Amino acid sequence: MATLQPPSFDDRLDNTDDGSSPTTPAKRLRWATQYKKGKSGSRKRISIMDRLAHRGSQHSEKKRDSGASMATDLDGIQEEPAAEQEDEQDNENGQGPRKVYFNTPLPPDAVDEDGHPTTHYRRNKIRTAKYTPLSFVPKNLWFQFHNIANVYFLFLIILAIFSIFGASNPGLNAVPLIVIVFITAVKDAIEDYRRTVLDNELNNSAIHRLVDWNNVNVSSDDISLWRRIKKATSRFILRTYKSLTQKKKEGAGADHSERTIDEPRESYESTNARRASAFSTHSQENIQMTPVPSPLPREDGLQIPDRPGTAFSYEHGEHAPPTKNFGSLINPNLPANGKARFHRDYWKNVQVGDFIRIYNDDQIPADVVILSTSDPDGACYVETKNLDGETNLKVRHALRSGRQIKHARDCERTQFAIESEAPQPNLYQYSAVARWTQYNAKNPKSEGEEMAEPISINNLLLRGCNLRNTDWILGVVVFTGFDTKIMMNAGITPSKRSRIARELNWNVIYNFFILLIMCIVSGLVQGIVWGQGNNSLNFFEFGSIGGSPALDGFITFWAAVILFQNMVPISLYITIEIIKTCQAFFIYSDSEMYYEKIDYPCTPKSWNISDDLGQIEYIFSDKTGTLTQNVMEFKKATINGVPYGEAYTEAQAGMQKRQGIDVEKEGARVKAEIAEARIKMLADIRKLHDNPYLHDDELTFIAPDFVTDLSGASGEEQQHANEQFMMALALCHTVIADTIPGDPPRIEFKAQSPDEAALVSTARDVGFTVLEYGQEGIRLNVQGTERTYQVLNTLEFNSTRKRMSAIIRMPDNRIILFCKGADSMIYSRLSHGEQAELRRTTAEHLEMFAREGLRTLCIAQRELSEEEYQKWNVEHEIASSAIQDREDKLEVVSDAIERDLTLLGGTAIEDRLQEGVPDTIALLAEAGIKLWVLTGDKVETAINIGFSCNLLNNDMELIVFKIEDEQISTAETELDKHLATFNMTGSDEELKQARKSHEPPAPTHAIVIDGDSLKLVLDEQLRQKFLLLCKQCKSVLCCRVSPAQKAAVVAMVKGGLDVMTLSIGDGANDVAMIQEADVGVGIAGEEGRQAVMSSDYAIGQFRFLQRLVLVHGRWSYRRLAETIANFFYKNVIWTFTIFWYQIYCDFDQTYLYDYTYILLFNLAFTSLPVIFMGVLDQDVSDKVSLAVPQLYRRGIERKEWTQPKFWLYMFDGLYQSVICFYMAYLLFEPANTVTASGLGVDDRQRFGVYIGPAAVIAINMYILINTYRWDWLMCLLVAISILLVWFWTGVYSSFTSSAYFYKAAAQCFGEATFWATTVLSVVLSLLPRFFVKAIQKVYFPYDVDIIREQVREGQFKYLDNKEASEAISNGSSATSSDIAKPSKHLHYPSIDEDQRPIYPPSVAPTAATHNPRSQNGSDGTDYTRHRYSIEQPAIRQSIDRPRPSYDRIRASMDQIRHSYEQSNDFTSAALLTRMESTRTRPSRNHSYNTSNEPQ
After folding, report:
1. How do residues 487-504 score in pLDDT, each as one tens digit?
2. Which residue numbers are catalytic?
3. Is 0.70 topped by the overall pTM?
4. d(CA 1094, CA 1099)
């Protein structure tokens, strides 16, 4: 595996006052930005071309490195370009490997005959919207007519144009299709307009781009004619607008917004802050020339493998430190014309090869290689939240050869080329090399030397990141637009259709076949009858249209298609669009899902999939920013065997609430105690030292006894222990201190891990304040006294080391190594045979902290002699400059010094969940929904969150997948072993059974898998087995996964199990899975809206998901399913009454009803009840829906809309059509009826009046019977619809323009037989449905029927209480997040021996599972939690002084279940106590990972 070598530090050594001094400036291993080899580290290096050949595959992704970095190791770069191996078309489109030139003419093979570049790169303008104003009409019509029903209706309209088929008004026939297409187009336009607005905001964001210089990689002549026309039009409109507005502002000067777009950015004085900096003498460019020194200086001496003429030279041999010769990209012989300047421009105008300058807090507009930064060491800090969801800062570095480039004039004088790999989506890998000719500035005529410098992901800023804590960076653009990594991971905006809509196509096809049969019968019978002759047709029809029986039958067939067209109703699609639009409006208007903090309601962005929300079985969630606030709070500590801190965690509150404990009442009881403790601690701190950096509202570590001990009340030993402990927290870190002026001043900490920020913040609160972390070391304010501590080395954290160390030279010249990390790692490195009692006590305390849901960490130290350190440092420098296996050598060297440690104590940090997350997850689980967590975080962090939010508990066996050798065969063996636990083999038959079963799995197992192992199990051979295993597990946590892997997991579950899926996330790294899922939900956090842009629904907090799914989703699904079934029913009854009539007129397609009846049937007579059924019907209220989440399971099982239900309603309609037609037919069959004036009512139109109103009444009453909510509005609409048919008949037939229908109402309504027939027809039609419903409700009730009875009995009246309803709908609980800062809860003493929380066998380090507690890292540990009972045994008080929180938890440790102890499985405290130190004697040959180290 190729490695990026670290720089040497000779230049820093040269800058010291005394080269022989034993003290050297800080040298840091960038563990967080270095690729860490595993057991597979011996694999051969691969070239760029090898990587490119697999760039589209998940298997090409490199193993993610340690920490939270996005680094990988990219050193094995082929020196010679191999572009000829790539596809020529890719090169032309800029999709292959690219070579970007700067101030260098393009080679002849890179230009065409006109001198223009042959390679065309994508624009930086992006569009997530599906349409443009120009393409909207044709593209939208194209999408709409993919719907087979729309094609069918268009065909009918074309048929109706020909009068031969009997259509009386073709124009009216086209109205329904025009309406549905128009409504759908308006809906799509509104949806897409919102996306367009967001796109435009992004594309028109400001960036400072170098202009007035020649970018040889692009040509202005490449702009297409159409784009030129658009640009000219835009410029004309803009000029016109400016000329009109300028007159109004004459004499007032230009508006600031107008000036800034044409002027360079003023960095000397900004509107946000005054910065003390010098500025360039260049008249066109103001940049900071004296930037703040980097708090994290980077080591010099970047190394690459042996190659002649590169930027790096070194002497062969491991013991020779490398020498520098970095060179410079600036050609001293190249003059600058002085015209180039950095101009404020738009993102969309950025092109490949552009120089751009980015300022602090700006977002990166494209993938940019860093040339220089405001930091003298070339470091900058970026926040990658939009990429991987993490808010901690990452370190990136400028090229060594580019750090002299500061100004626009410097950019003009550069001369180099970048050979880059092709665009690929791997966020953690990038391979390129910069090549240039190095000239001697003192001897311009001398021959230049060809040089090169490798470029890795450490030198690349990705689009979507934010620059932090860095005044500015200057870089060059290598990828733009959809070639950037973030956009390649985003995918295209999918067109989603709901499941019911997809299944509806089949029902439409079924009806089409029924229609086809009806038309064939009509054509055959009519043709045969006409051919027979000697019947009534000969007397009434004077010849035939076709001229022959066959042609007559053919014409009749198409006439029947028009007459019976309602069998495939286009009005159904209109109704569905109306219903879904109203449902989307109700979701948007729900005040219970309004997030006031950011003024954001739940926003439906796709209106056509609301019914899918009612069928969700699997939810895939991101962690950071979705489940958690990513806010760490220091809660507890154990120092020298003494526990400190009072806290009540969200995990405990969630457990106690589920056990029936009134957490609100308990919270109120302890609120005063916590407030008193806080006040006392603050008073004691200020009495000890008036700390100006302490802010009352930021104190999270509430421990008055700690301050008492710090003052010496418990003796000097404990006082010294507390001081040394806090000193370790203040010195062992890589945190950036940012002092905000004010009275009092405020210090904020920027850290690569939020845990580190919490630790350093607590040290600040108790008087050990980090003021600055610079090149000279760490400047502390210790109890009012400022001291400087020199950082000699920092061995940073990674997921394999699970610890970090800092070697510090103290003011008294002592050298101390401070180390913090996972308890198992620290305990295995403690001095052998020492501190036995302290080790046991600390382990017990850490165990209790972990049971409370806190993330634990151990703190230790070691004092080094000068000789020992200097000897080790030599080896360390040799290892850091090694070419081969550098990481392994560094780990061996680091491991050698991190031994014989002295234990100081431990810490406990709470990762704050979002409000209501545990309750929301519990509620979703009760509804039968399975939640999977897909996160880019480390395994340990994800497991912690799993316990905190109720996904994991102590009763689960934790299956941890970590395939070390990355072999598919090994992964298959592991899968088979775990499947055997469930008596499964992963067969196709088992998969079929799994697809049928929707029952939630037993809460006995959970799976945790990392990205590398996931890549193996997603292979075609293993995917099915992995899916079946996951289905048997209650919870699944996928860690360290890329955006593409997230989408692959969603696709695996969605396709493999045929279930409905929902993905929820808040960052750009979640976009792929949001688009892959059936429903995508984006969280509109306070930072970043990329997920929202691509989502179907946007909410403000995770807790709103329960209401969106369990209330609106269930309502929408049930309403729509019932609406569609009733719609098919009503069209069947209407169409078949016409069909039965054809039997008695030889199927010549005579209309039974007046044509206005046919037009108004779906438009007026039966439309409103069925529409409002779909919009407003409620089986139970929203409060009851949340109180009884089990009601949702009908949606998971898809029982509301099934094919049997469809056919049942079809049969019901068929039966009722027979009743309605034949009741009237049997009335007229014996004799005719005449009116009082002697006029007969036996013509077809008056016969239709006897049938039509009866059918309309039956239909509307049928819909009312199927409606759950009979409120005044629904009853009024049904009544209006019924009366409307009589009203229309009376009014329309009063006019002579109604022709043969004239006076039909007066004649028919005056007959008693009409009313008798109508009443009998309606009663007989509805009687079977009423009878069946009565039997079902009484003897076979659904769950909702039982709940509705309970509601009527008043069992849910308690929900009417406003506070109770808020607690349920918002999922709030009395946790630390709900109570003001001074009011943290205490623990409740509720321990029962039979329910004593113990570690199940899954926690022991067996072959099948591992002990999560041994997998802890510096920013997270696993833990278990108490299972509480209502009984509260006596608490064993601590001896010296009362510690409420500690004493309550201590009670659980006093009783041990004997059977558990006999099983040889021990708690983690026992494991740590029994652990022998395996790192007690320094040994260079000692392996880093040993077999006797717990894994």
Report:
1. 887 655 567 788 898 888
2. 622
3. no
4. 13
